[in-house]
Amino acid sequence: MKSSAIRRRGALQDLSNLIGVLCLLLSLAEGCIVTAPSLVRLGTQETILVRNTRKAPNNVTLQATDHPAEARLLFKESFVLASGGVKLVHMRLDESKFSAEDFQTNHSKYVSLRVQCDGRRRFDERAILLLSPRSGYLFLQTDKPMYRPTETVRIRVLAVDEMLLPSNDSLLLEIKNPQGIVSEAKNLWSSSASRSSGIFSHHYALSQYAMFGEWTITVTYGQHKSHKTKLSFHVKDYVLPTFGVRIYAPKVLLPNAKDYQLAVDARYVYGKPVKGTVTIRVYVRNEANHDVQFGLKNVQTLTDGKAFWNLPVSELKNGSRWQDWVNGNRLSVRVAVVEEATAKQEAAVDSSVVFSNSFYSVGFEHTRRDYRPLTRVVVVADISKANGHPASNVDTRITAISDDGSEVTIYRERAKSNQDGKAFFELTAKKSARRINVTVSTSKRDAHDTEARASTVLSRYESPADAFVFITQDTSQTTYHKDDHFHKYIVVSPDDMDMVYYQVTNRGKILAYGIAEGNTSSHRQIAFLLTEQMSPKFRLLVFAFHKGHLVADSQDYTMDEECSAGSNITVETDLNGKEPGAQGKIIIKGEPDTAVGLLAVDKAVYLLSDAGLLTRKKLFRKLRSHDLSCGPGGGITSDEVFADAGVVLISAKHGSKVTMTETSCAARIQRRRRDLRNAESQFKDPFLQLCCHVGTLRDRLGRHCSTREEIIRRHFNNPKGDSCAYAFAQCCARGFAGPTMTDLHRARGPYDPSTQLPDNELDEPDFSGLQLRRDFMETWLFNEGTIGPDSEYIHEASAPHSVTTWSIQAVSVSSKGGICVTKPVEAMIFRKMFLQVSLPATVVRNEQVEVVATLFSYDAKVQATVSLHGLPGLCIGSKHPQLPDRKQLEVDSNNAKSVSFPVVPLRQGKFPIKIDVRSSGGSDLVQKTLVVVPEGMPFEETFSVRLDPSNEQRRKTRAVLKRGCRDILDEENRRQVISIIPWYPPDTVPHTESCSVSIIGSETSMLTEAVISNVDSLISMPMGCGEQNMMIMAPVLYAYNYLKMKNMLNETLFNTALTYLRKGYQQELSFRNDNGSFSTFQNGPGNVWLTAFVLRVFCEARNVIDISPEVIESGLWWLTTKQQANGTFEERDPILHRELLQKLL
Fold this sequence. Notes:
With 1145 residues, the protein is α+β, with helices and mostly antiparallel strands. The protein is built from 17 helices and 65 strands.
């Protein structure tokens, strides 16, 4: 009885399943198949593909609303689709239905996409899509990575939308100082020309007191200002190097290696080798970046700019076990090169060498997690060196074992890695196997090496219908090109499967679609033409329905990283090899009407730092970041295939279900970002937040979280270390990844002047016929323009006077769509014989300094006379101040020598010093500016005298004599005579005295009457210390408000006042302390009176210019800490300018 009942229930179940399948097939035949991106963006057109599977026309309606409320209609389109017809719908959500507040929370936003198809049975389905307010791309570029105070930061912004067309979004640019305070804010949307071109530029002048440290440029863009792009630059004092140093070291050190080789190459910025000596130091650096030095190596002389070492590994072990060094340690090599001619020193550091038990490591980043039975599956092993760099030409082998013991056919057991470190294998598994364990190992390089191996598991594709579609895989790395004919076979099982659909996506946009050819074959074909819109990579998605169930497959393909035809540009110049000051052209070739930006920088700048450079690699990495797919392709189920492809399918197969996107790549990325913010916020201690943040960063050596946690515990070895390790482990386990950076650090040594040569009395030289070299700029070009109808943008210019190599780069934005960054083109400006003059940044009056002139000769041996020419106020080594100081010099071929000239400046100021060289081999004339400052320390004393000729204050003493002034009151004649008698300390440095008088009314009415006829005279450039700057800025603000109220503010005065107010604000921030207070001088103690005055002026100025709220809030908070119990304020550091108190009254 029980057996009979079970058979009846089984029969009923089979009948129910059959009815369900028939219903699904009938529903599918009557409905639509819709594919949409799993994430949609505001401000851009998304693509939705609608297929009519009905054998009759279908009325289709697409409707998008907010989710879950569905109260806002964002998009709606209705159309008739013919039998078997396909329509690509372009959907742009109505961004006006959203406000900025909608995106201020960390919660994800969704859109409900509803599809209605009217047939005999109405098809009405919907999918919930992720919504992102971020659309478009923005790239930042500065002319240099570092600046000195008073220099100008040149900023360029490239803005395009999702289709890579020039963006129409408004852009808010903010420049923040090292304290994180907004020093300047500017809306870049004001220029219609910039909007149409997509290229914006802005110049920011650093003040004399600009804070040293890292500054940040932030541009906010996108719908409702929801997206930010940042770029940093540094402000510091630096000296531009004349040559660079490169270290060549092994990438990996193995435990059994006997020795290792190091090499150094030192070259001038114009490519010639350096003559000099080099010193090398070797350290072992642990995980906490602490170094242990292992001796000073012998100094070597550079030969053709190079030096080599062969060092024993044994001394690095220092008696310790090798495992102690392998644990996260690296070899750090530091070299210092001293130039023979000038004794200038340049240094470099290389910390990339990794201690490891194996030279290689194996990964499977480009291997799919799934396989289809009886098909050829390609396993891609990523072979890298222990330091993470791809390893080419490495012998590898593979083994594969199925979970049920069935045979796994391996078509090639051994393979060599290609130039990108990828090794390809093919295998086939039986249908009975559910999982395949694959292991790839490397062959030993030598007797000292240990093989590297790694394993992964491939899982069989699961389908309720016991069916699949499979894209045949490439058995070698293939990079496709624009205009190639792409062709692929699709394996279908069983072969009676109905139509196989395909579509091609890039960055969420559907770019090609169709039906595979060969409807009755087990091998279908797909072919389409590759377009530039598919670069740099595209995703091929194929799917079909069998017995009412979905089967699918997908695969990623890489294309050449080429710019679009409209934006592709090339840079050419005829200046390479020419002499300083030569005339030449820089030509940018491309499509007419393409907007371009040109940048030319002295390559010596990049020897100091090349951080933040805009490169083609960064450009395409940013474009790939908007792709919705993840992984190499495939999936264990059809749902996983679609989720990893970033596509949502809406069809009758889902019945009445709602399709969600929570498993898509975009959703996982959003959750990871949200988890990262939540992870750090769970720790209140800033130190533990830092430990947590470190845990979210990718380990360059690929070590497990537990391994890195143990390193932290071992390094700290105290309770604080345990807390840090716990926070690290908690956040590391979440699996976040981020870039890590190391590398070049620079150092400078003191100058050691060479021996002087005796004077030679010659007549005063004539400069006629000599080219004066005095233009030694670091940034040569920072221009924007448009390519003309002849497909060229030509910039004619004369080369600056530096003997160096210029790095010339161009960027472009096409009005037809596309953005491009060229690879830098180098132009070496060179002459066979030239002078190099070195001056200190500043010198003190009456102190002797050495002006060093170095003569380089890359021609024949020369006998030369080097002359330094005198100036009034400058004492040099000649017999008469107006005669030059001359020295004889002999320089061998391809060599350099220096001479030094003693100089004593007798007054402060700037001296344009000229030095020339004359010889049979040629001549040169160089002008450099010597900046002289007075000796001693600045001293300033202020005092105030009340103007009261009517004696309203009932003053009793008619004559008052005090230090600095004499005040006599004649009350009968209502006359007051004030004689200023400047008093200077007895040790005052001569000729540095100055005196200034400011007259300020005690009441607003008096001030107004005094200046009513000449209010604009109050508008002047703020300058000076923290107090002086505010004494000028405040009247500018008051005058601006008065003139505006009286409608007396013309355009010139308006722009001038705004410029001065912004300048005053930026300058005052230089005197802001980290605690929010303001001081008279940089890094001085906070002053209560000054801070209060600054806050008062800034509060009023907020209505005129952008003032960071944090400045006012932190200042007010600091003031509250200075308030006493009785309500008064404590002032321990009184202000210097007492008249500032009157401004507060």
